[in-house]
Amino acid sequence: MTSNNPTWEKTPELAAQLRPRFGQRQVYMLIAGVGILAVVGYLLYSVLFGGHYYTSVDELVADPDLIGKNVRVTGVIIGDYQYDSSTETLTFVIGHIPTDGDAIKDEGGLATTLANAVNDPETTRLTVVYPSGEIPDLLENGNQAIITGKLDENGVFYADNLTLKCPTKYADELPQQAASPE
């Protein structure tokens, strides 16, 4: 009996052609995968073990390499501000506060740290110039400022962005609300 089905025989040459190879495309994919893993690893490391989200006034003033570079710095507002309506520019002074959460906790919390810095005449101070267009409500003595900008050679910080925090403004309201029976 004869079969109508043709037979197929794999020759050694055909087998070599059909054998999966680790080619140039796979090498590129491997390199890309290793690169992506390296970037993700670096980002995780920098978030978990990396530097500060911002620098302190002491660190900024002490490091001449930071002059002219864009940095984020935090401090406590000391005294009043000046507003030039013709240029819509705010000028104010911030003082050093630690950026380490443990140091702030050891001082008794952020509100205590801010108050201590305002009342200490030895606190390192930094003049800030900020072209704001308006005067923020929380721009008050004793509030925390987080600013982004550049320090010039004269020790004046020119801010591009300003964020203000007031840790004590609502501190007493929430516990009373939580404690009230209604």
What does this protein structure show overall?
This protein is of the alpha/beta class and 182 residues long. The chain folds into 2 domains: 12-49; 55-165, Nucleic acid-binding proteins (OB fold (Dihydrolipoamide Acetyltransferase, E2P)). It has 6 helices and 6 strands, in the order ααβαββααβββα. A 5-stranded mixed barrel has the order 2-3-4-6-5. Strand 5 and strand 6 (156-165) form a beta hairpin. It starts with 11 loop residues before the first helix and ends with a helix. The chain has helices at 12-18, 24-49, 57-62, 101-106, 110-119, 173-179, and strands at residues 55-56, 70-84, 89-95, 125-131, 144-151, 156-165.
Features:
182 residues; disordered C terminus; 27% strand; alpha/beta; 6 helices; OB fold (Dihydrolipoamide Acetyltransferase, E2P); 2 domains; 5-stranded mixed beta barrel
Blueprint of the fold:
Elements: H1 12-18, H2 24-49, E1 55-56, H3 57-62, E2 70-84, E3 89-95, H4 101-106, H5 110-119, E4 125-131, E5 144-151, E6 156-165, H6 173-179
The radius of gyration over CA amounts to: 30 Å
Question: What is the assigned CATH homologous superfamily of the largest domain?
Answer: Nucleic acid-binding proteins
Largest sheet: 5 strands, mixed, barrel
- Total strand segments: 6
- What is the CATH topology descriptor of the largest domain? OB fold (Dihydrolipoamide Acetyltransferase, E2P)
- Biggest β-sheet: strands ordered side by side in the sheet: 2-3-4-6-5
The helix content is 25-40%
TL;DR?
The protein is α/β, with parallel strands linked by helices. The protein is 34% helix and 27% strand.
